Amino acid sequence: MDKNNQQNKTFFTLEKKAVFDEVQSSEKGLTSEQAEKRMAEYGPNQLDEGKTKSLLVKFFEQFKDFMIIVLLAAAVISGIFGDITDSIIILVVVVLNAVLGVFQEAKAEEAINALREMSSPEARVKRDGAVISLKSDQLVVGDVVLLEAGNIVPADLRLIEVASLQIEESGLTGESVPVNKELTVLEDEKAGIGDRTNMAYMNSNVTYGRGEGVVVGTGMNTEVGEIAKLLASTDETVTPLQNNLNRLGKYLTVAILAIAIIIFVVGLLNGRGWLDMLLTSISLAVAAIPEGLPAIVTIILALGTQKMAKRKALVRRLPAVETLGSTDIICSDKTGTLTMNQMTVEKLYVNGQLQDSAAPLELDSPILYSMMHANDTQISGDGTLIGDPTETALIQFALDKDITVSEVLEKEPRVAEIPFDSERKLMSTIQKQADKKFLIAVKGAPDELLKRCTHVIKNGKVEALDEAGKQTILETNHELATQALRVLATAYKQVETIPTDMSSENVERELVFSGLIGMIDPEREEAKGAVSVARKAGIRSIMITGDHRDTAEAIAKRLGILEATQVGGVITGAELDEISDEDFSTRVKDYSVYARVSPQHKVRIVKAWQKAGKIVAMTGDGVNDAPALKTADIGIGMGITGTEVSKGASDMVLADDNFSTIVVAVEEGRKVFSNIQKSIQFLLSANLGEVLTLFIATLLGWSILAPVHILWINLVTDTFPAIALGLEPAEADSMEQKPRGKEATFFSNGVLGSIIYQGILEGGITLFVYWWATNYPIHAGNAELIHNDALTMAFITLGMLQLFHAFNVKSVKKSLFTVGFFKNKMFNLSILVSGALLAVVVLVPGLNDAFKVTHLDTIQWVIVLSASFSIIPIVELVKLGIRTFDKRR
Question: Cys-Cys link to 213, which of 56, 159, 239, 867 (CB 3.0-4.6 A)?
Fold first, then answer.
């Protein structure tokens, strides 16, 4: 067959003979000669490795960022004109960022590698008329593979023989319950993976029974291969943080170059030498660039990751911390994230009454014995239940009723059985009882079991079961099914001897109906609260699952994703296939629940929301989720149930697989962005204050600050408080605000205006102190002494202004008295340390000579500190005006 068309063939719609004709094989399998030819033509059954970049290439690619280029230029200029310290600091920051970037990129590439390593090591295959074991990469189309419980399916197979075969496909479909496989030919060519019951797919797990299948797809032409192609072709999404930093770099560069040119021209017009003005302009430009910003942002993000890790959210890519805070949409897998991933008995229909599972139940009730005996669950030595999730749920229910299941099974051992069959949909076991009689316990599909029941037990009495009684049971079954419960029926009968004829027709007849059991994978209680918190925060929760429509809709209503009385809002993968991308992009807002979806559907959903201008977080645990995780603005993998593939494609991993942890992480992300904004507001207002001080002083012909003063202020008053602001606690109403949106920048929410007026304040107050000290000196003396005192006062004022101003930026609009002065211990310590380092150059003999400053007396210190402190009440008054204006508006 054509290699390129392997994957596109709808083998599940073909009869067995047509399948063999298509793959040019037979039930006896291939000969070694045929297999060798096909191996030479199609290649081994493994996933392509794809192109990889060397570490050196990855390293140099980190320098494409605009802000990094600006910083490198600043480093070169600083080095040329003597500011070696500045140059070294900038280069260290840039190189560290590049190393971190390479590390994160290398971690991201683990996704496809993990996918490649998931293949089955060996497979049992029919070759040359005999059954042999082969490495799975040696399989070719047309091979006949034998499957049994415990096997990993080695390729995509069209099943040709099954015996109670069940395969767990959650990695591909997201559905936690194993699928009962059968040979029925399907008519719907658009059936989803989860509905293709006559197919077995590569990397899924055989949990029960046995079967045979013919290989119809290998390597990249399997469903897993399609996912690998999606992963390889999906570009990493640029995070809002990266966009913000790039834009910030461009804005700063344009502004700084404009100021430098203006100062150069004005200086020439004032008669100053061109070389002097060139050095002044370059020094000002270099000083104005916040070279510590990338490092400070990285530190704040790293601190955020530590906080998140303590709350069970493990971040793999630093920018993801901030991206979470801007999330508009959370697309979540249902199983294990919104639900417990554990089937649980929720309702019982016994004695003609429907009751909750928590309601009292007689310990000798036949329904309990039926669910314990007609059950293949194994109980390990440590009490762990091993087996099908549905059956383990029944045993757990009995254990919760304080029944010692192991003792019951030991006293009444199984002596015969009729295994589950997907055609009759029943399972029966025969147990020897103490009175030398035998109990036949049966469980299965209600409609099939009722056909075999002639009696019903009510309150310990066996009564005849008429058609009206059966109809009542069927109506109750329908009622439970509409609540998305998976319903099983149980029945029993006692016999004197083990039947010699163990056929279904002989054993499973004249049964006594004992009840209905309604089960569901229940929602996590904390997830319901988290959905509510997310809604208040303006975040929409979307459920995406491989489960059936009714189940998904019922869980969504119980969680609050859909309103209890809501009609609509649910769509299946098959229905989604009928909608074009263009149409879907306009209708995506209509749907909150997606059922029976494929990996391609998940990518479409994420892209549709992104096209609508939303920032999308996507959760997932299976191989099928990996492409969507990589496409989303932030991919969130599951730490417990997640495959290595899904974790490798994720930006963040949940250690507890819990949806509520995502909402906690969103709150942390909002705090991180807010704190980065505060640091940027602090740094840029400080730098603007410095630039305006030097700019206006140059225009006035004043010699106000030497380069060493600017360098020291940048070093001791910028860095420590800016980092400490990253540790500010979240503001009380952070999760009551709407997401800031994709177009929001670090300057949004009033930050730009605050930077401008606060920078003007800093520059204005510094210039005022210098002017006052020059024109109204405290001590009489020569002009040089007066100038030195004024210079020292201006230097200390500018530094102390920035430290006092750091308190202002704890909140853009809220009063400092509301936010609190001293809640952040690290911030308080940084202010004290920075203040001490600033004062020491004036107070310590020898250092003041090196910094060209003089000793100040008490009056001069009072003036400096009073002027510096004045920025707090001034900003408080401005904030009050802003809050009053916003309230009126």
Answer: 159
Strand 634-638, strand 652-654: pairing: parallel
pLDDT value of position 97: 60
List, in order, residues 6 or more apart from 704 with CB less than 8 Å away. 693, 694, 697, 766, 767, 770, 791, 794
DSSP-assigned beta bridge partners for residue 490: 443, 515
DSSP letter at 360 equals: -
Q: Cα separation of 693 and 355, whole Å?
A: 78
- Between vectors from CA 251 to CA 246 and to CA 255, what angle results, nearest 5°? 150
HSE of 35 in the Cβ direction (CA atoms, 13 Å)?
19
> How is residue 135 written in tokens?
């490495």
Closest CA to 650 of 325, 329, 320, 328: 320
Q: What is the DSSP letter of 482?
A: H
* Whole-angstrom distance, CA of residue 269 vs CA of residue 575: 73
Burial (CB < 10 A; 0-12, 13-18, 19+), residue 113, is middle
In this structure, what DSSP letter does residue 779 have? S
Q: What is the pTM of this model?
A: 0.69
Q: What is the pLDDT of residues 263-299, one digit of tens each?
A: 788 778 877 777 667 666 766 666 676 766 776 777 7
Q: Residue 245 has which token pair? A: 């930093």
The DSSP letter of residue 152 is: B
Q: Out of 83, 143, 333, 633, pick the active-site residue.
A: 333
Amino acid, single-letter form, for residue 633: D
Active site residue 333: yes
Q: For the segment 635-679, what is each residue's pLDDT rounded down to a tens digit?
A: 998 887 776 667 777 888 888 888 888 888 888 888 888 888 898
Q: Report the pLDDT value the prediction gives residue 107, as an integer from 0 to 100.
A: 47
pLDDT score at 115: 40
What average pLDDT does this structure show over 735-746? Answer: 79
Q: How many CB atoms lie within 10 A of CB 407?
A: 9
Number of CB atoms found within 10 A of residue 864's CB: 24
Residue for token pair 């909140």: 811
Residue 236 vs residues 353, 627, 793, 857: alpha-carbon distances, Å: 56, 11, 51, 60
User: Is residue 133 over pLDDT 80?
Assistant: yes
SS3 282: helix
Task: Count CB atoms within 10 A of the CB of residue 707.
Answer: 17
Instruction: Please tell me whether residue 348 adopts helix, strand or coil conformation.
Output: strand
Q: What's the pLDDT tens digit per position in 47-78?
A: 775 556 666 776 776 676 555 665 676 667 66
Return the pLDDT at 547.
Answer: 81
Tell me the C-alpha to C-alpha distance, in Å, between residue 89 and each of 74, 193, 372, 435, 844: 11, 56, 70, 88, 26
Mean of pLDDT values over 618-644: 81
